[in-house]
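Readers of this paper often ask what the protein records in our data store actually look like. The remainder of this section carries one protein's record, kept here as part of the documentation.

:::
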Amino acid sequence: MEYQLILENPNAHFLRVNLSVPVNAKSSDFSLPAWAPGSYQIVNYAKYVQDFSARDEANRSLAFEKIDKQTWRVNAAPGSKRLTISYRVFANILSDTESEFNEEHAQIFGPQVFMYAVNRKTSPVRLSIAPLHGWRIATGLEALNDSTFHAADYDSFIDAPLEIGNFSEVQFEHDGISFRLAVHGEADTSRIRDFARHLQRIVAEQMQMMGKAPFRHYVFIWHVDARAEYYGLEHLNSTSIGMPHRLGDLSSADDVSPVYAGLTRQDIDLEYAAHEYFHLWNVKRIRPFALGPFDYTREVYTTSLWIAEGWTDYYGYLTLRRTGQWPEWKWLRLYANLLAEYRKHSGWKFRSASQASFDTWLWSYGSGEQGNLGRTFFSYYPHGNLLALCMDLRIRSERKNQCSLDEVMLALLQRFGLPKPGFTEAQFWQCVSDVTQLDWNDFRRQFVEGTEPLPVEQFLALAGIAVDTLSNAHAPYLGVSVKNQNNQAVIAEVAEASPAAQAGLEADDRLLACDDKALTFDNWQEVVQAKPVGTKISLLIARRDRIRKLEVTLAAQPAASFDFSISETATAEANTLRAQWWQPYAGRETK
């Protein structure tokens, strides 16, 4: 399959794609994916396509028809030996699963832009690009020259986003592999060089554990843009990450998420980078059987995303602890925050980690249109992270530090890593049992396939980590989460049995005033939290274009927060376990 990408009109945000293939039948079908690997939601990228046409090598116009929402059927003319389809793609969204083209740059996300010949997905791919004058290209694709690239097949072709423009960059090498940090939106080269040094430490630690990566080059594509909503997506030998703040931003991340309370925005950068890079092995090479080769036309189901994403989260955190980029207190604070989020959320009581993995297609990242999922769906990212934490500590304790989750990861890579087929659920647990020589049936039944609460404190004690529960009984509790709509405070979710629920507040109610004080997204928490527990407040709200007044009696906060610390009474065995757990990976005989 031969593709040509033309950056056609930056102000109108249109890309043109030409795809040429040999004719081997009376008709040929061309399709665009409905979803993208790594992002488990139906997007229907065909909605961005217009001006489809088809011609043969004699420049004869060919008839075509659309046979489903994302597939075009082209009828060959008598004697045609080769046909070329041409279409335009509207690209004006900056995210990890969309494309953007304007006068500043082009971010090309393959599943949105490049159709495939349905009977030629395994054929080699060649891409030529006509960029705007002076623009450069950063991508994980193998380059034939500055503007021509190739891939072994369609799956690997669209698993390589492209950044095209006048980006800043830093390059470095590790273990014979070249790395490229291409940054759009950050012109301060000293900041980029400093961040590249952080990336080098992440790369070195993870490759020390997992072994030499099976590629010759890797690209970190980084977007610094106020519109970026903290995104990241893994690819075969690259990643695309977007942040609304500058590299090296040491300001507080308290306002980003409760999980990041006490951390800085740079800590978020490091966490995303460590997570996405570890995906090189976990997901891209060690994967559930269902995740490849891909059926791009419909949902692909697996119950193992708690492993694919949750374990990757765990090793991202552990990498930063092992490299020293996160000191002891920072790692402890992050997991204390994570445990608090887990305990206060009701979702894991309704859906197990494996069921949430299966149901991921019901969830829409960043959307408020979740129905009741906000209450009944707890993300398999933090859930899987905590499961990995507990599993690792159990293994290390019961096997006297002679085995760990590290060895499980290496065994999974050896048994199921590409080009071998991925693992089934049964094969995964068999591998865990074989490596650890432990029985996991109860753990699996209770905490992975069941909804029993994870006894995280019990497992942390094995590493000499004490967990103190901090009461929030003095803090007032309304029981809502709020989203920002043009600085208006709009209710996203109402907690069950909360004061808000009892008073009749609903999702999408707009909070206008509290006791005659105007509310905005910026001040609503401050205004409400200034009221003592037990106070009856008067809330003015807008609901379906009607103004209403509701009386709400504030309760005490039901959810506790936690403080993690190194126990002063920890045993020597526990201290040794923790020290070895957090040490940079040194390899073992089982590697």
Q: What stands out?
A: The first helix runs from residue 110 to 113.
